[in-house]
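Internal ticket #5521
Category: modeling
Description: The requester needs a full-assembly model to guide mutagenesis choices. All entity lines are attached below as received. Residue total reported by intake: 254.
Assigned to: D.W.
Attached entities:
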Amino acid sequence: MAELSKSDTRDLLRDAARSLDVPTRRAFIRNVVGLGSLTLLTGCDVIDEDKAEDVLRHISQFNDRVQAWLFRPHVLAPEYTAAEITRPFPFNAFYGPADAPYVDASAYRLEVSGKVENRKSWTLPELGRLPQFTQITRHVCVEGWSAIGSWTGVRFSDFLQRVGADTTAPYVNFRCADGYFESIDMPTALHPQTQITLRYADETLPRIYGFPMKLRIPTKLGFKNPKHILSMEVSDTAIGGYWSNQGYNWFSGL
Ligand SMILES: Nc1nc2c(c(=O)[nH]1)N[C@H]1C(S)=C(S)[C@@H](COP(=O)(O)O)O[C@H]1N2
Ligand SMILES: [Mo]
């Protein structure tokens, strides 16, 4: 993976000087607390909100290729203590909470397709019997809020290995019960904190937060964390995403 020098990064930041619409930028910056991760991403010291605003204004305009080049698979998102969990956790979707889908747990089958050796579908009890881990991480929504939550589930890289995924394929596509869809790059899919989430705060994932399962990716913005997933496909082509198809940056992460 190529490393960028500080001056390369500054040049790239300068070159990426197209302006983002002001409300989007403000909302994003007001709520980005992880200045440390910006420092990691840019190699520049990001020490205050003004500098963060400046850096983010440019990063949010990076094209996906440059951001993929910056991606370093060993960089972990910060983890927090149980005392820091945000209660109640905010809900967000392209509709209100009353309209979140009801998925029948007993009928549920996660469909796995595309470039995998084993295309079997998975029931919830089968997923629940796989080794689980818990993360307490920050979810950052591009619409202007962030919150710390506790999510438990299966390491996605373990799952991909178990189904015999071709991890040289560049993308994994997701389709959800509410019509939402998202796609991620393979390095992000294999990142150790990327999780098939089955539980929130030590309880079955509540309906509004993505029952029966969601993908938790703490190195990505909130909209790259699809809820209510029905199927996943390992693929040579990405299906885009509900929000990135409306102009939000597809990569949207570290
Ligand atoms: N299926 C589905 N997944 C989704 C969304 C959605 O509308 N539908 N919204 C995304 C956005 S923009 C955010 S911020 C998070 C919100 O997750 P939460 O309700 O657990 O806070 O879900 C993401 N995943
Ligand atoms: Mo979001």
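Resolution: model delivered.
Comment from assignee: Strands lie at 111-114, 133-141, 145-155, 171-176, 181-185, 195-200, 203-204, 214-216, 229-235.
Ticket closed.
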